[in-house]
Amino acid sequence: MNYQLFKESIEKAQNIIIFSHVNPDGDTLGSMLALQIIINTNFNKNPQTVVLGKVPDIYNFLPLIDKVKTTDQIVSDKYDLAIAVDIAAKDRMVAGIGIFEAANLRMNIDHHKTNIGYGDINFINPDACSAGEVLFDICTELGLKINADAAKCLYTSILTDTGGFRFENTAASTLKKAALLVDLGAVPSEISRLCYESKPKPMVMLQANSLINAQFELNDKVAYVKISDDDMKKFHAQNDHTEGIVEALRQINTTEVSFVVKEIDQQTSKVSLRSKNIDVSKVAAVFGGGGHTFAAGCTIKKPLKIAAEKLLEEIKKYL
Ligand code: AMP
Ligand code: MN
Ligand code: MN
Question: What is the pLDDT of residues 147-206, one digit of tens each?
């Protein structure tokens, strides 16, 4: 990776825009906001940050989250530099893709192994636990200053994408970098509480209902649940309130693969896949999605029931 290119492209750019991915999570938001702060404090420039869809309420504690705009609020649609963070594939920028494509220079900072390197400049490290870690490495290489707010954002990226330092992407180097971020001002107990112990009631109730209604296949090796629009309405749940359910299903000791299929509309279903051993990014790729070996996702243009059947068929090939 040519780190100097990062510095040069920011120095040359007058106006910069940073994109997070649709259905934003802690990594994409944390790395986007950290990047905004790092560019601001080290280069004295003010990038615009963009979010596609609603920011989950739990991430409202992140610095500068109140300055984030949605694509329809962007006034200037021509940027010198557009940066995508934690975005496995361009279509995950949804309505933002036009602005990204129209920029003079496009940068791609990511850690998904299915990322094809769609930027003019790409910083992709599939061994990094999070896009936040890739950004941390860029800062280290270039000697860029990380202030307490940026440290808080980067720590949130690393914490959430490692599932609270529990997933296999947690290496000794991950913990060392997290420790450095604590030295720089991130407070672990505070960030953990905000990320994991501040769930809204509808989210907890929806999760309980989903676990009760989970279905099991192949001697319980596959655990899954279908979440309909009616379920969402019944618990007054918001879109991001499905987060964590697929991990809860994987926690069962017999589970090899878990998945959640959520109804987007009568013809569209959104899928989250998790596994302990098999490569679910391959399963997601069959349906045009992608992700990581043990955590992947896709959107299937089929009703809930049929989407679940198709997924089961595909997963059975691996078990
Ligand atoms: P999720 O289940 O939404 O938390 O996603 C799990 C992982 O798969 C994340 O790293 C996502 O970035 C990735 N992912 C989800 N959906 C897609 C998709 N349609 N295309 C590529 N990667 C995806
Ligand atoms: Mn992400
Ligand atoms: Mn990520």
Answer: 999 999 999 999 999 999 999 999 999 999 999 999 999 999 999 999 999 999 999 999
pTM of this structure: 0.93
Phi/psi at 292 (5° precision): -110, 175
CA distance 259 to 256: 10
Which residues are near ligand 1 (CB < 6 Å)?
23, 88-89, 92, 272, 289-292, 295-299
Q: Are 315 and 296 in contact (CB under 8 A)?
A: no
List Cα–Cα distances, 214 to 61, 143, 225, 249, 250, in angstroms. Answer: 32, 49, 5, 8, 11
Ligand nearest to the CA of 290: 1
Which ligand 1 atom is the nearest neighbour of the CA of 281? Answer: 8
User: With contact defined as beta carbons under 8 Å apart, do 175 and 165 qualify?
Assistant: yes
Scan for tokens 């290496």, then name that residue.
171
The two three-digit tokens of residue 311, written as one number: 């997924």
